[in-house]
Amino acid sequence: MFRIDKPLVAACAVAALALSGCSSVEEQSAAEAGSAAQATSAEAKAAQQVVEEATKAVESFEAPGDAVDGVDQLAGKTVYFVPATYQVPVFQAVASALENALGAADVQVEVCDGKANPANMASCIQQGIDAEAAAIITGSIPTDLASVAFESAQKAGIPVVNTMTAPAGPGDPAQYAYLTPDYVALQSRSASWVIADSDAAANVLYIQVTDTPATTIWAEQGALATYERDCPDCEVTVIKANTGQLDKLPSLVTSELTKNPDIDYVQTEVDFLVQPTIDGLQTANATSVKIASMDGTLAALQQLEGGQLVSSEVGFNADALAWYAADQAVRMMAGQPSNTEVAFPYQRMFTAENIDDLDLTPEAEKTGAWYGSTDYQDGFLELWGLAG
């Protein structure tokens, strides 16, 4: 819990009386309360500026690198996609988009589920090595979580694209690439929406995912750091859960709301926590609580549109992320270095102010149209020499 109470001044100092003409303790207390209100308003206003910037859509595609030669020679090769856990809908969306993107070069995609277990993740990477994959793309698997497997891929000369962990890291660009949405920033923006909406006085239940070290970093450096820095009068309670404990989450939420009925906001770290959270809120009869979440899945956005507890969503274009990851893989497979420190731009916040502008259908979700221009697909095909 982060809370800083601003005490009222008990009496005017003699010098203050002389300079300001303060005539009573009551007048000084009122002035102090006015200052506090202004400070809170300033905090909420600053948070609202973050929200307004975050709701903007991407206008057009900007190539992340030079054209790639020799892509037409990759036909028939196979790329392994290893997500940390295939239960998470965003990984399923990325897998489907990878098949579309790499399929344009006649490259096949094999998916191996890491099952939220480091041993399984390492085993999947090894499967790709044994199958002599042309490249391996991982999802939310930090290198230190399966270090031996990553080293084995490097020794085998198999390029690796590490997505959804860090924007950059160690490794030869001819064999290694990094690509990620700015999860820390997305978590921070989600917290900023709560701060703005609550006039910097929220009582927040934050639900954190503990599956990987990456999700811990997103929570601590993103949302929780934002509340502590930008909202001293917010109260924050944290529940920690992993994908193997989702059946317990509704009762944990109900218990917390029963102990603390003043909670008026819940921030879920990712969208697959939303429905168990709603179940817990409904059991606690806390149907006026507002939920802020991250991923931008169709189900969560439909709940936002319908006013069903979800009030804010931050997400990234999973289709675009897959094309960017495919580009990194294609470059290394074609014998060229990857692009280091690629800034992934297709990230956006959705609220009641812009949700009605979206076509909330599976087809629109797949195209990535919610985030702005979708000309990145044609842009990458042109970079790969496959346009037209």
TrEMBL record:
Protein name, entry field: Ribose transport system substrate-binding protein
Keyword Signal (UniProt): yes
One GO location term (cellular component): cell envelope
Family, similarity comment: Belongs to the bacterial solute-binding protein 2 family.
Subcellular location field: Cell envelope
Chain ranges of the Periplasmic binding protein domain: 79-336
Keyword Signal part of the UniProt annotation: yes
One function term, GO molecular function aspect: carbohydrate binding
Organism: Mumia flava
PROSITE patterns, alphabetized: PROKAR_LIPOPROTEIN
Signal peptide: 1-25
Protein keywords: Signal
SUPFAM superfamilies associated with the record: Periplasmic binding protein-like I
